Amino acid sequence: MSLEVAAIAVAIVAALIGGSIGAISLLRSDRRKGREESRRKGIEVFREARTSWDQAQFVEITESVRRAKLQETRASLVAVQQLVGSKTETKEFGQLLALLEEDPLADGGVNLATAKAIWPTVEKQIHTALAA
Asked: Which of 7, 86, 112, 132 is the most buried (most CB within 10 A)?
């Protein structure tokens, strides 16, 4: 009888350990899926930001359309920041958001010129954050 009890105890302990390992594996898998989903959404939203940014650079568009495209760019960048997190909390990223929040076309377009100068650095930072 004590062998049966011992066998049952061993079976219970094995089941508990196996269940814990399974639960840990499932938790890790869920985290990985969550990170991958955030990364995928981040890429998609950054693509939207890039499209709006490029459209705002067209010479032929009116100021109101340019302003709208720059605001779309800012909104998409904020969405990327929320998806990617602290990896985008850089001086340049913050400066670009601030420039796009103000009227980028005011003061003869000084803010837009500064934003254009910062854009390549921010773009690299986002690519790096999304690749991680």
From this structure: 112
Residue 16 lies in a domain: no
Q: How many structural domains is the chain composed of? A: 1
What 3-state DSSP class applies to 103? coil
Residue 50: C-alpha distances to residues 26, 34, 44, 56, 78 (Å):
36, 24, 10, 10, 13
Taking a C-beta distance cutoff of 8 angstroms, is the pair 51, 70 a contact? no
Sequence-distant (6+) residues with CB within 8 A of 96 are 77, 115, 118, 119, 122
pLDDT tens track for 57-100: 887 888 889 899 999 999 999 999 998 887 778 899 999 999 99
22, part of any domain: no
Closest to 76 (Cα-Cα) out of 57, 93, 59: 93
Start-end of H helices in the chain: 2-56, 63-84, 91-101, 106-131
Residue 43 lies in domain: 37-131
Give the pLDDT of residue 121. 94
Could you tell me if residue 10 is inside a domain?
no
